[in-house]
Each structure stands twice: as structure tokens, then as C-alpha cells.
Design goal:
Strand 1 (about 20) and strand 2 (about 25-30) form a beta hairpin. The N and C termini lie far apart (about 45 Å). This protein has about 120 residues and is of the alpha+beta class. Helices cover about 20% and strands about 20% of the residues. Bound molecules: adenosine monophosphate. Adenosine monophosphate (AMP) binds near residues 5, 86, 92 and 93.
Amino acid sequence: MEDCIFCKIAKGEIPSNKVYEDETVLAFYDLDPQAPVHVLLIPKEHIASAKEITAENSGVVAHIFEVAAILAKELGLENGFRIVNNCGKDGMQSVQHLHFHMLGKRVMGWPPFPTAGN
Ligand code: AMP
């Protein structure tokens, strides 16, 4: 999709620090890491957010989780990791292209959830 930064990264039009790539999925380091290991996993196909996942396009989401398991081994995350998806305005999604944050080597308290006030 035009004017989508992650589509441009997927096409190689904008550089990224890639850790994994195949025909349908790309993984690269987040520019503003919130953990010692912070990778973004994206479908190359433009899917705007988790709200746009359907029976037709959900296969790539399963594949993204397979890639996360591969990366966990490669990046030394044998003690575990977090996968985070922010969806839509209330989910504080800032880039409108489906992506999963993979956070490793211990991170607590991210993303910052607003307190309920009680
Ligand atoms: P979200 O707030 O869930 O939409 O996350 C978007 C993420 O994309 C943020 O963590 C940003 O730091 C990251 N980001 C934005 N532009 C780039 C880029 N060009 N390369 C790597 N990460 C990026």
C-alpha cells in the first residue's frame, strides 16, 4: 500500500535491520527498542491491523508465530519472550500495518497500560 512505512520496508524501499525474511513474512529490529531484544514481525501483504484478519488472510498470522519460534532459538530467547499486538486507536497502534512486537531478555511494564484509576 502506498504511504505505508512497513510496506516500503517489506519492498526494500526503506532500509531495516532484518533478522528474518521469506516470501510472506519479514522480521526486523524495532527502531526504538523497549526491551534488550525487540523485533517486529510483519506480513509482507498489507493488512492494516488485527481487526482486518479474516479466514482468507489468517494463514500468515500462524506463519508469523512459526517464525517467532524460529527466532526465539536464533536470538537466544530460551527463557521465553512476549508477543504484543497493538490494534487501533484504543490499542495505541501507531503504524497502520499489522505487526507483532517480539520482546525478549526480560521486559516488564510495556506497553504502558493506563491505570483504571481505582
Ligand atoms: P505500534 O505502536 O504497535 O504501532 O508499533 C510501531 C512500532 O514501529 C514502534 O515500536 C516503532 O518504534 C516502530 N517503527 C516505526 N518505524 C520503524 C522503522 N522504520 N524501523 C523499525 N521500527 C520502526
